[in-house]
Amino acid sequence: MTAQTMNRIDQRFAALKAQGRRALIPYITAGDPAPEHTVGFMHTLVEAGADVIELGVPFSDPMADGPVIQKACERALKHGVRLSHLFEMVREFRQTDSETPVVLMGYLNPVERIGLEAFADQAAEAGVDGVLIVDMPPEEADDVGPLLKARGLASIFLVAPTTSPARAATICAHGEGYIYYVSLKGVTGSATLNAEDVAAHLAPLREMTDLPLCVGFGIRDGASAAEVGKVADGVIVGSALINRVAENAERPEAIPAALKAVLGEMRQALDA
């Protein structure tokens, strides 16, 4: 991999910073509602204004996720979607999009099943740019981090409202790409967020890291995206998109327009 392909996330955030814009980072679960649609959805998200795509690895026990994403995982797993399929999807996406950063988001179990080194090799070869393993704290990342870094893959970590300052400092020291700040206590798709509260939590993180701070959980529409965009470097949206996939699971041809409607409104609001 060349330096250019290794560092799409950093390049994208540098370009956004130069433009004074905020990153819009959509999340979809790979293989939902069926695997043949995922790559098309990824291109749709880019057309609608996505700066980075988080591609969810389906898992049988997604403990950080609420019912919306749990059901998305179930729909994907019914089709037998595995990590190897995600690598194929990213490879196919890269045939026509060599610029949009792709982050794999999931849990440690599927990664350990294929082996850490094999995972890092295959992810890099497919064109993945970053990895967010929800249940791998930085203290346990000493094995994985160097493997990913050697292949140009960013290790991305979560910080929660309940994270202590000392622990947040550890996370920031290990993090690459961007810090994913979880705006709410609870699971994905939970209650409304408070932008002032988010701002208060982001301020000390800015003292600890130069990495972009991106906020997820609770961003539902253009208004909430714009509010968070005033205080964060990026907004991450998952459940609002997965809801549209679920509503149209029986007629997947309607999903691209539904995704564009949600994401397009957020893009407009962020750029306004």
Notes on the structure:
The chain is of the alpha/beta class. The chain has a domain at 21-156 and 219-271: TIM Barrel (Alpha-Beta Barrel), CATH 3.20.20. The chain contains 13 helices and 9 strands. It has helices at residues 3-6, 8-19, 38-47, 67-78, 83-94, 108-114, 116-126, 144-150, 165-174, 195-208, 222-229, 239-247, 255-271; strands at residues 23-29, 53-56, 102-106, 130-133, 154-155, 157-159, 179-182, 213-216, 234-237. The protein has a 9-stranded parallel beta sheet. Helix 6 crosses helix 7 (116-126). The chain is globular and about 45 Å long. The chain starts with a helix and ends with a helix. Mean pLDDT is 92; it is low at 1-6.
